[in-house]
Every structure is written in structure tokens, then in C-alpha cells.
Amino acid sequence: MYTLHIPQCYKLLGQHYGGSKRKFFKKITWFWCFCRRKGSFFQPKKTPEKIFTPYQMGPFKLSHRIVLAPLTRSRAIGFVPQPAAATYYSQRASEGGLLITEATGISPTSLGYPCTPGIFTEEQVEAWKPIVKAVHDKGGVFFCQIWHVGRLSHYAYQPDGQAPISSAAKAASGVVYLPDGTGPVPYPTPRALEAEEIPKIVEDFRLAARNCIRAGFDGVEIHGAHGYLIDQFLKEGLNNRTDRYGGSIENNCRFALEVVKAVADEIGADRVGIRLSLHQFYSDMQISDPLALGLHLIQGLNKLNILYTHFVEPRMGPGTASIETEKNLLPYRKAFKNTFLAAGGYSREDGIDAIESGYADLVVYGRLFLANPDLPKRFALNAPLNSYDRSTFYTQDQVKGYTDYPFLEEVSVK
Ligand SMILES: Cc1cc2nc3c(=O)[nH]c(=O)nc-3n(C[C@H](O)[C@H](O)[C@H](O)COP(=O)(O)O)c2cc1C
């Protein structure tokens, strides 16, 4: 390799142009202008950040690694998803992009919030079908988050006005809104499930997973996070049982693993994920060693060979406020053998870093995706984002704050 310096160039080109300096400089000026016009053509091609590149998640070929978080939107009138959900989810769908639904009840005892959907009646399954189709029509991969709220409910939601169920007969602190939107009222004291009743709840999860596949979903995410029924078994602060479902890490994980196994047996392990929030302590749901519990759980999940685990960052306090902490998800990421999803407080740049460094395989976005239906595109272009409107997170309006967040083109045109 050698370098030609300007005088040499001049000499060579000058010879070529018959020794005329004027002709030489004219040609050089033309060439310089041409290069400037072509601009990027001459610049080295920038490789896209890994978050924008394909990822093979088990049988699913994803085209990027930006995932829609499960987001309760309280638009399901009578616990049945409404047609506007087809617009809402398809707006957020992209070719090869993974979407996870809002938390969706598995059984009549599973509900505890007004206007949240279920997937345990034929009417609900039928209502989900066009929503799933709308996402598939845009090439999206769609998982349903299946959910049992446990003690975070009220007699008014329960069949025959019974007490809600949980791992222990201890009421949650805080308040609950009733199915008709009235309230709030304090949480009632739940009834601790008898050990013999637990297989029935496991069966409800299995049937709900079957219904998800019937509705056309690609898979399910089991909601094991945020203080709901599975979490109520995992966390020793609440779970004071002395039978095989409490009293040790192994026993506290038993219900979660039974649910995962039943669901995996029903629809195939490569269609099953689970969401966990081991570092979020809801009222009395403390836990002395989240890492030990998490690693035991992961050992079981690895044996069942499920598709993914979806962890909420320790920095997320209960709710959506961030807290200071040194803790992170790396030990869980290293221990779990299949796809690892991380969620909670991610910006575009944090997400890019998380993927580049191998901290996670996919990054899950909640509030940013809620307010930006075309979030993957905006991230790819590093375009400005719409801000979210907290006051419309949980209203029943089928348009405002739901399907009316503008796309980038609409913003640019204004
Ligand atoms: C409006 C709203 C509804 C939510 N609903 C659910 C839900 O149904 N299931 C769930 O697991 N998490 C739910 N979350 C938590 C989000 O999935 C996510 O973990 C949280 O918003 C933090 O991520 P972010 O910082 O990207 O928003 C909800 C959060 C918000 C803001």
C-alpha cells in the first residue's frame, strides 16, 4: 500500500490533462462537489445497532428486539376486549416485532380491576380473534399475558360474592376499585387456598393457555410478577404456608413451576414465557433473598425449557417510579438458558446498550410504546417521541389516549 500526496497527484493528473493547471483544478473542484453531493455514499456504511437486527426467539423470527410490554388499558367493557383493541395493537405491530397483551384473566376468580379482559369464556375467545388477526396481518408476533390477581380483588369480582383467594389469609394494604368503577374501598381479607384446591387453579391457567392458542395467539406469557397470585406464593413475606406450597424456597416456587409445566404441556414449551419481578415488594410481600429464589426458579424453568423469562428491573419500585439500586438482572440472565427479556425504565440508549453488551436478548418498553405506536421506527431513526398522558392510561375511552397517539408522519406533517 502507498499513499499519493497532493504534489504527486498534481504531477500525475497534470500530465494527464496536458500539464494545464487550470484544467486540473477544474476537474478536482468538480470531483469535490460530486463527493459532497453524494455525501453518505462515500462515508463508511454504519452497521445498525444490534437492537435493530433480527433475533431468532425459538421458532419465532423477530426482525428487531424492541418489545411491547404488557399494559393494562381498562378498555375491555364487561371483561371482553373491544374492537378498538384491534386498532390499538395493530398500530403497535411491525413485521417480526413481538407484542405482549395486557394482563388477561384466566378464570372467573382471576379478576380484580374494572374493564380488564379475560380469556376464559367463548365470548372472550371470539373477541380476541380479530385482534390477534390484525396484529398477524402486520407480521407481528403476539403473546397473551395470562393472569390471576389473587388477593388483589374484591367480593364484587368473585363468583357468588366469595372472598378472593391467595396463598395466605392476609389482606393487601391499599384500595381496590369495584367492577362498575366505583370505590375505592380497602382490599378484603382473602381466603388461603387449601392445597387440594391448587390443582384446579393450575388447570385454569392450562385452559386459558389453550384458549389463547384457539384465539390465534403465538404463545402466552404467564404473569408471575407485581404482587399477583403467583407472586403471592413466591414471596415469603406473605406466604406463611406450612404445606408443600410454602416455608422454603423450593416450596414457594412450587405453584409457579406447576403452572408453567401445565401451560408448557398444553401448548408447547417453545410458546411459553414468564414475567417475574423478584425485587419489587408489594406491601407485606417482602423476600429475604430474591437471588436465591430467582436462581432456584430458573433451574426449574430451564428444565422445562420454556421460551423466555421476562424480568422487571430491580430499579423499578412497586408501580412505575424508579429507585436507586446497585442490583441488576445479570445473574438471572446468566442462569437462564433461553431468551431473556428485560423491562423497566428503559430509554432508547439504555436499550441499545443492554443488547450490545449481551445483558438482554430483547428489551421491553411500556410507557414509551404506549405513547408511540411506531416506537421501533422512531428508535431506528432516532426521531423525537410523543410523551405519554398518564390521565388516560386506564380510562374506558376507546380512542382518546388509546388509538389516537400520532405516528411520526402525522407529527412531521403538522
Ligand atoms: C398503564 C400501565 C399498565 C400496565 N399494565 C401491566 C400489565 O397488565 N401487566 C404487567 O405485567 N405489567 C404492567 N405494567 C408494567 C409495564 O409492563 C412495565 O413493566 C412498566 O411500565 C415499566 O416499563 P416502562 O418504564 O418501559 O414503562 C403496566 C404499566 C403501565 C404504565
Write a concise keyword list for the protein shown above.
414 residues, alpha/beta, TIM Barrel, 2 domains, eight-stranded parallel β-sheet, two-stranded antiparallel ribbon, 13 helices, 35% helix, globular, binds flavin mononucleotide, FMN, NADH:flavin oxidoreductase/NADH oxidase N-terminal domain-containing protein, Oye-like, flavoprotein, Aldolase_TIM
Query: Oligomeric state of the chains?
Result: single chain
Spatial separation of the terminal alpha carbons: 53 Å
Q: How many strand segments?
A: 14
Question: Which structural class matches the secondary elements?
Answer: alpha/beta
**Overall outline:** globular
Low-confidence runs of at least 5 consecutive residues? 1-18, 38-42
Distinct small-molecule ligands in the complex? flavin mononucleotide
Rg for CA atoms: 26 Å
- CATH level-four homologous superfamily name of the largest domain: Aldolase class I
What is the CATH third-level topology name of the largest domain?
TIM Barrel
Mind describing the biggest β-sheet?
A: 8 strands, parallel
Q: How many distinct helices?
A: 13
Cofactor: FMN
InterPro entries: Aldolase_TIM, OxRdtase_FMN_N, Oye-like
Family: Belongs to the NADH:flavin oxidoreductase/NADH oxidase family.
Keywords: Flavoprotein, FMN
What's the quick description here?
This protein has 414 residues and is of the alpha/beta class. The chain contains 13 helices and 14 strands.
